[in-house]
Amino acid sequence: MTGRNGSAKGAHRPPPLQPHVLFMPPLGDSFDGSAESDHSTEVTDRDWPRYNVFGNEPVEPERLFWYRWIAGHQVSFLLWRAMCDVVWHHPDEDAPSERELDLLCACIDGYSAVLLYSSTVPRDQYHADIRPRMALQHPAFSGTWAPDYRPVRRLFRGKMPWQEDASCAALGEAVARNGITHSHIADHLVPEGRSLLQESAGAPGVSVSREKEDLYDNFFLTVRRPVSQTEFVAQLDSRLADLAADLAHNGLYPNVDGAHHPVVTEQADDEMRPFVTGVLDVLDRAARLVSEMRLEEAHR
Description:
two-stranded parallel sheet, mainly alpha, 5% strand
């Protein structure tokens, strides 16, 4: 089954699966206007290749799933940062505009889709390779240390003052879908329910420090420096193109020694199915809205 109709040209060539350094603005900083240019600011149409939910080509598990873990998290950081601007502009009772709410919904669904993509690693591979690497970075390594997640954490917890407004109904549904996605992934990777943070001695009282945020950035190849609007958009677009090439060649659930390891199946309910069969469609909608708003800001 395919996630999107389109050309499969080039799908037979193995993708490079090479993580790239991500450049992000320091938390709280605006985008850099000095590096903006008048070109490369069009939001172009993308013709994503087909992808099979269940891949046929045998894969090198360690290389593939390490790439997905890094690249998928980087896309999450970019989507969170796009959401941050909306949250920062509406800290009180003043609800975001319809367009801003569309952006938040699309980015949350995009985050859910790329979270699923990142987490397609088989459980044994996760515990043999990825989890030990995170533990080597820090015994209590935790996603709560992600700098760009901190400003939007209240949104995912339904704690923004305006989230009870009727205009935010679709946003609430997107947040709920994200919670369901997290539950599927937890059942897939850590069915015992113990994170590194929870297993670490004294974890309940551990606070997030700048040092831990730096450790988190370093692990995911993320460097903080001034970034322009156009560079931000270009980084998101290039990662989605790489992700599309991976899916076209390996499928969402790759062939690992003749077996597949689905996180959410094709028989999922209507809410979850787009994250299985339409990863690229979901991410394309988010990227398009992010690009439009970021590039409009670049021209102001």
